[in-house]
Amino acid sequence: MSFSSIMGLLQFLHFLFVASLLISSRAISDQIPKPYVVYMGNSSPNNIGVEGQIQESDSDHLQLLSSIIPREESERIALIHHFSHAFSGFSAMLTDSEASALSGEQDVVSVFPDPVLQLHTTRSWDFLESDLGMNPGATHTHYHSSTDVIVAVIDTGIWPESPSFRDEGIGEIPSKWKGVCMEGHDFKKSNCNRKLIGARYYNIQVTSGGNQTQIEATKGSPRDSVGHGTHTASIAAGVYVNNASYFGLAQGTARGGSPSNRIAAYKTCSEEGCSGATILKAIDDAVKDGVDIISISIGLSSLFQSDFLSDPIAIGAFHAEQKGVMVVCSAGNDGPDPLTVVNTAPWLFTVAASNIDRSFQSTIVLGNGKYFQGTGINFSNLTHSKMYNLVYGEQVAAKFTPASEARNCYPGSLDNNKVAGNIVVCVKDDPTVSRRIKKLVVQDARAIGIIIIDEDNKDVPFDAGVFPFTEVGNLEGHQILEYMNSTKNPTATILPTTEIKRNKPSPSVASFSSRGPSSTTENILKPDVMAPGIGILAAVIPKSQDPGSVPIGKKPSSYAIKSGTSMACPHVTGAAAFIKSVHRKWSPSMIKSALMTTATNYNNLRKPVTNSSDYFANLHEMGAGEINPLRALNPGLVFETDVEDYLRFLCYFGYSQKQISSMSKTNFNCPKNSSQDLISTINYPSISTSTLKRQQKAKVITRTVTNVGSLNATYTAKVRAPQGLVVKVIPDKLVFSEGVQRMTYEVSFYGKEARGGYNFGSLTWFDGHHYVHTVFVVKVE
């Protein structure tokens, strides 16, 4: 045998050895128990509120576990969480093979690993209520008259001492409330009141470390240790708090969208994330407790989106909707790329983020006298009178560090001796190094301050505390680098932040806000709407700020400025609670429709809404537009999307009759002809269709509207369509009389001459008083 043959044989044997190791290690890891969710569909109506029957259901689930877990591992025959109110199921420690065996059981709809989900105000509500800031003197005395709508916030808990949760002037707790105020080592029943009527926490939380999943106990208390839950709760329903500010910035009256409605906090998350099974348990409890609206500023990563029967938020929200409880969710913070939107089930109300007419600027002064307006929040003591040397990251690189890493201010990339005492310019070529990391790297190297050049996030103010910080886009960044190259000793200073009021244009889509179309189905337009999510002042934990974040001589602030779709979501929650307080009998889909069909798609320059790149925003970025809560009180017509619509959606999506029957526990049967194309036909307040071929005949979509305005009204249709797309409405006039409350119409789309790709437009029904907008997206191939 030749030498080359021997070497080839050795390489082959080595490959077999490595492959066998990989297979055996995978086989071993497959048999390591980890948390799984076992979803078993709708709860039997007999189980709800009957303690003995709930315990019987509990024992049934334990019996099911004992049938597949070996007797010698009997300690695993235990439920982590048990769901029995809005829906049925449990979570438990299972191996992959045990999970696979359970998925074949008759009553089981789906079995999936417990996923880890991520956590995704003074001026914002005034901005929304004054026709997008164009009527600064507008006041609305009739606003917030009711006090019995209950908002559940599923998040990191709550800080009950915040002034935003005081209960002065609020009436007795509604009799429908069946929840609890759980005590903990740092939380007493007396921390709840007539405003914060309930608080729960959950002992088991899942965190992922490497390839291992661990179960650990959270701190036994509903108290917020992160600040996220407190912030979102106060945006949704915080009371009026005068003279609120963040160390003088954003000063004014802080309040939520429904200041006189109630809050119930459900602590499911820590800084590390949120267990999907725990979120399911919290939704189950919230429905049983009697809440009206659930706010969830949480979601799966857009990189790892799952289908609707292995997404805990989608599963829980489906059953909440069946019980008449609306669920509002954030769209995610993975923009500006398309196909990043999460929480896309049609029964969820999915919210994108926008700016408001207020910004926070930190000015750069260069040695040549030029000024540049940067974005950021800093409380430094730098002034015009003293300038500092200005250096570029790659010019002060540590030995043997690639210039690209130093330019991006990677950890360990800078020479501390060259950085100390200077202002450092860093860029963002690499999205893996966050602004916070860059700031810490430069700060640890004893720099005076930092200027970041970042086109993508220049619209979102980063809070740098007392450290001089500012951020500019590429245009300003190029001019700063040109100045640095033009002189031997470039200098600069960074001034403390100032607040810019009546900022224009606003609203605009936030750079970070996740975009559609939905990667699961393009035939439902997501996100649904847009709401303020940049620079929002709301309540926080007074001691939650990082060291160096509090200005010298100041006490920690009870309010802070944060950005994210996490902040946009509770704005819609608050608006929905406001509408619910006026229209008590309206279903979740009616409230959702009202907010969508009355949303605005123009800014305070009276021009179409733009995105952070100053282009006109499309419907995949902003949904139906920016919510207008006051206009939504009287929408004229609404689209009612009922449970049968959602069941048809599941049929069209491709789920089996058995799965859908288990989910609904009804006699509903899937239509004989089911395909993804038919998803467009469910009665949704917007229209999206992904399959209009140029040569095919017109595609017809049916919609039904319910009159909630004047008994006698005539609506006329007006279509705005892009050039080449032929859109017709039949009939183009809807006549409502005293005996006619619902009417159906057809919209046809013909694309022979249309532009390829996504075509965006709208259909508006007008009766002389109400404008009922239905936006549409048609993908032409």
From TrEMBL:
Residues 505-523 have a biased composition (Polar residues). Residues 36-120 form the Inhibitor I9 domain. It holds the Pfam family fn3_6. One of its GO terms (biological process) is proteolysis. One of its GO terms (molecular function) is serine-type endopeptidase activity. The active site is at D155, H228, S566. Keywords: Apoplast, Glycoprotein, Hydrolase, Protease, Secreted, Serine protease, Signal. CDD domains: PA_subtilisin_like, Peptidases_S8_3. Belongs to the peptidase S8 family. It is found in: Secreted, Extracellular space, Apoplast. Residues 147-603 form the Peptidase S8/S53 domain. Residues 502-523 are annotated as: Disordered. Residues 1-27 form the signal peptide. This is CO(2)-response secreted protease. GO terms for cellular component: apoplast. It comes from Flemingia macrophylla. Required for arbuscular mycorrhiza (AM) development during AM symbiosis with AM fungi (e.g. Glomeromycota intraradices). Residues 682-778 form the Subtilisin-like protease fibronectin type-III domain. Gene3D superfamilies: 2.60.40.2310, 3.50.30.30, Peptidase S8 propeptide/proteinase inhibitor I9, Peptidase S8/S53 domain. PANTHER family: PROPROTEIN CONVERTASE SUBTILISIN/KEXIN (PTHR10795).
